[in-house]
Amino acid sequence: MPTKNTNAEAYTLHVQSSAHIISFNQERRITGISETLLKEIPDPATVLGTSLEVYLASQFQVPEELSQSLQVLDQDVVPGRIFLVKKNHRVFYLHIYTCENQWYLKWEKKLDEVIFTTAISEFNSQIDKLSGRLWPCLSEVVQQIAGFDHCAVVQVYDDRSSSVIYASPNAATTLGGRQFSSDFIPSKLLSYLVDKEHSYLPDVEHPAQAFFTVDRSVQLPPQVLPLPNKPIFSHYVGAASILAVPVIIDEVLWGIVLVWNTSKKKIDFQKRVLCHLLVQSAARRQKNLGRQKAADFYEVIKQSEKDIREKLAGGYSLNACLIHHLPTIQKLAKADGVTCYYRGIATGVGLQPPQEQIEQVVAFLKE
Questions:
Q1: What is the DSSP string of 183-202?
Q2: What does the buried/exposed string (b/e) look like for 43-80 if buried means 16 or more CB atoms within 10 Å of the residue's CB?
Q3: Is there a contact between 201 and 189 (Cβ–Cβ < 8 Å)?
Q4: Using CA atoms, how far apart are residues 98 and 71, in angstroms rounded to an integer?
Q5: Using the 8-state DSSP alphabet, how is residue 227 labeled?
Q6: How confident is the model at residue 200 (pLDDT cuts 50, 70, 90)?
Q7: Which of 42, 169, 193, 194 is deepest in the core (most CB within 10 A)?
Q8: Beta bridge pairs of residue 260
């Protein structure tokens, strides 16, 4: 619930701290303003209820395309539509969102120039050459684009437990192969990460800022909401800034690509979008790899079934057939070892438990 700010005669909510945000209504009157915009205006009441056009004109050189879009709010607004606006010699990305008959403008400073096609082509070229190194290759590229100290790929399972399947060399000692319980990524945080192309915290210690609004019943769009929980991960690795990009395969969260810096650092919006596009490309390749592995697995099963049938028809016992295929079974199961127990005799390949333990397992299964 919003809290009443009696000095400003407005209600206080919280939004992301990484951008400036204002809301306005159908009459293009400002109904909400973020804390970062109040450095020169100590009292939000002096802005709330005023003309949006007048306010924007005082802040930017407003492009004609943006002015025209603001005049036709009754038409569908393309979610997240982006405009480039200038203030003196600085350029800003300005996004427009809508939610429950309210409109929101969110802007941040442009920091860099990005050539999307070049970066994506180079990544796809590297993947084609480095078979089997999909996630290490992706991590290296994303870390380079973000300009951050560390990168890791975390695979998330159905029960919300997770494991680190790759960590950059300077993070491998801390994270390499680590497994985490479901408490490591709370359900609310997981839902938040899945709903966004990326989640960005330039300052982990200050993920949210105050948002002053005259509308007590306002519903903030998801694009401006702050993280519901401070990520445990940031404390675990000593991160001051984090970028998290979900890996979605078949509309299900497969994992998260994390890049972080040990000191506060910003990433240009276009670079964050590029990281998202690269992760999407990697997700498609992972999906194709999964399909290929499933096809290979099925082919091995069919061939093994055919071999067993032929041997049985040739007079071999079922036990002999199974023993012959133990190496195949071990490979398919990705097991350290496999044991076939038949009429008191245990035959196996790979690592084997003591005979006493095998007998205990057999006795348990007979119960």
A1: GGS-HHHHHHHHTSS-EEES
A2: ebbebbeeebeebbeebbebeeebeebbeebeeebeee
A3: no
A4: 14
A5: P
A6: very high
A7: 193
A8: 150, 242
